[in-house]
Design a protein that fits this description.
Elements: H1 3-27, H2 39-45, H3 56-67, E1 75-84, E2 87-97, E3 100-108, E4 111-116, E5 121-126, E6 131-136, H4 138-150, E7 161-168, E8 171-177, E9 183-187, H5 191-200, H6 210-223, H7 227-241, E10 246-247
Parallel strand pairs: 3-7, 4-8, 7-9, 9-10
Antiparallel strand pairs: 1-2, 2-3, 4-5, 5-6
Pfam families: NERD (PF08378)
Protein name: Nuclease-like protein
């Protein structure tokens, strides 16, 4: 058999395998791995994170923040907060600002998105209504992340936290209601605008020790370097699930 044809088959199988793995990971809320990272992206995000950390949507947001002038030392990506024993809380992105802590939950979806602040499950609609999928309410998800963060330091009890749910990808926020105070639902292209609104309309936060804040956030990022921590976190999510304001 011609060697070129064999190589063509192998490449095709690798592509199919990677796509299937992406689908399985997305279904199980597992961050997608990086198969190819453009050199430009590596260089852009290097001051904050590494090309194997988090999802592509998260890394795109890190790059956007850096390009907009947000200081690299205030951005913390792919955090694993230790709670107890082998339990961790994984947070996509945190930005420390003068008015408080911005906590990001980043979703990479297409289609129409429906939901409200009270529902446990939100809905993604594809193919003009022919396909519907549910996913856990990202407002509740990020509220839990903030609650876990507040337990890390005493001063966090007096520091304002802002929840920002970012929808990347080709999606439309069709009917999102009952968004709580301090929570923002935003398309990726308007993240910087929302961050400016938050920082320009709120008073400085009463930090008592900024070094402690940086220490806790850096440690959480460092925890995520451990493959065992990542693996255990995914297993904990599977066990839990019982399976292996708006800016359009």
């Amino acid at each position: 058999m011609d060697i070129v044809f064999i190589l063509f088959i192998i490449v095709g199988l690798v592509i199919i395998f990677n796509k299937m793995r992406d689908y399985i990971e997305a279904k199980n809320n597992v961050p997608q791995r990086s198969y190819y990272i453009p050199i430009q992206e590596k260089e852009t995000i290097e001051p904050v994170t590494q090309s194997h950390r988090g999802t592509r949507a998260e890394r795109r947001l890190v790059a956007k923040l850096l390009k907009s002038g947000i200081p690299a030392q205030t951005i913390f990506h792919d955090l694993y907060l230790k709670k107890y024993k082998d339990k961790y809380s994984q947070i996509d992105l945190v930005v420390a600002t003068k008015v408080g802590i911005l906590v990001f939950e980043i979703k990479d979806y297409s289609g129409w998105i429906f939901g409200n602040g009270h529902q446990t499950r939100w809905t993604q609609v594809l193919a003009f209504g022919q396909q519907k999928y549910s996913f856990y309410n990202p407002i509740l998800q990020n509220n839990k992340h903030i609650a876990d963060l507040k337990k890390q330091l005493q001063q966090f009890q007096n520091i304002p936290f802002y929840s920002i749910i970012v929808f990347d990808g080709d999606c439309t926020l069709k009917d999102i209601t009952f968004v709580p105070e301090g929570t923002y639902i935003v398309k990726a292209e308007r993240v910087i605008e929302v961050m400016q609104i938050i920082t320009e309309t709120n008073t400085p936060a009463p930090y008592t020790n900024k070094n402690d804040v940086v220490r806790v956030l850096k440690q959480a990022v460092q925890n995520g370097e451990s493959y065992e921590v990542q693996r255990q976190h995914v297993e904990n999510i599977k066990d839990m699930l019982g399976e292996d304001r708006i800016f359009n």
